[in-house]
Amino acid sequence: MAWVTEHTDPNTWLWLTWVFSRGTKEQIRIFCCTLWVIWSSRNQMLHERKNSSERDLAIKVQSYLGELEVVRERKLTTTTGRSEHREEELWESIQFDAAFDTNNSRSASGMVARGQNGEIAVSKSTLHSNVSSPFVAEALACFEATRLGIRLGFNSVTIMGDSKK
Question: Could you tell me if residue 125 is inside a domain?
Fold first, then answer.
């Protein structure tokens, strides 16, 4: 993945555009997972004072990539022989997370809703003010995710948040 540092543009958007235009699908998958793990680690360091080693981060990236592969395989091997379950119920999910700014009592919620085939149906972010704690920030994110699922009319929804906070 050293190639991502070959082009150093001070404009983050231009740099990300360059990375996404040059990488293969697999390289982009690894890059995105790595960014997610780094961002999550940063949030844990800021909000929970929990530091992770480089080795811990690498293991998390490998684990997350493994989880994505399991989902991909499960998607490829779904059966259609049974009529008692509906395929879309297996894949309707909303993933969410929150970031909390202690100094300004603000938070941000981000969520991604996936439809019946695992495709992204919608993504949304919301800013909140007058937030008293990280717990309230997570609760607001969960509330927003639930409202999103209701608005989308999902019949059965699995909501996955950050259970570590």
Answer: yes
Tell if the pTM clears 0.85, that is, is over it. no
Asked if residue 117 belongs to a domain, the reply is yes
Question: Which structural domain range is residue 108 located in?
Answer: 93-161
Residue 143 domain-assigned (yes or no): yes
Mean pLDDT of the chain: 76
Rounded Cα distance, 33 and 40, in Å: 11
CA distances from 60 to 33, 96, 163 (A): 9, 18, 16
Residues 6+ apart with CB under 8 A from 123: 110, 111, 112, 113
Shared-domain flag, residues 57 and 98: no
> Do 151 and 104 form a contact (C-beta atoms < 8 A)?
no
Contacts of 91 (CB under 8 A, 6+ apart): 75, 114, 115, 116, 117, 118
